[in-house]
Design goal:
By secondary structure, this protein is an all-alpha fold. The protein has one domain: Non-ribosomal Peptide Synthetase Peptidyl Carrier Protein, Chain A. Helices cover 55% and strands 0% of the residues. Helix 1 packs across helix 2. The mean pLDDT is 88.
Length: 80
């Protein structure tokens, strides 16, 4: 089952002060959406709890765009 953009937006917007419509597949996490390491840790923890996945923190830190994040998190969700 694929993690959908809307699911990601809900979690993302809880932790980062952006409007949901700004969270597009092309948006860069750091440059466009101002994600910092604390935001990322909080989102990863919520994704782990919500979807029962285990996110590798080092891998998550290397994600560049929302699309990268969706593909990575979806692959983890699909493997469960």
């Amino acid at each position: 089952m694929e993690l959908m953009l809307e699911d990601f937006r809900k979690i993302f917007c809880k932790h980062v002060d952006v409007e949901p419509e700004e969270v597009t597949p092309e948006a860069r996490l750091v440059e466009d959406l101002d994600v910092n390491s604390y935001d990322l840790v909080c989102m990863v923890e919520e994704l782990n709890r919500t979807f029962g996945i285990t996110v590798d923190a080092h891998r998550a830190c290397g994600l560049i765009t929302v699309k990268d994040a969706l593909e990575y998190f979806s692959s983890l969700k699909d493997s469960n």
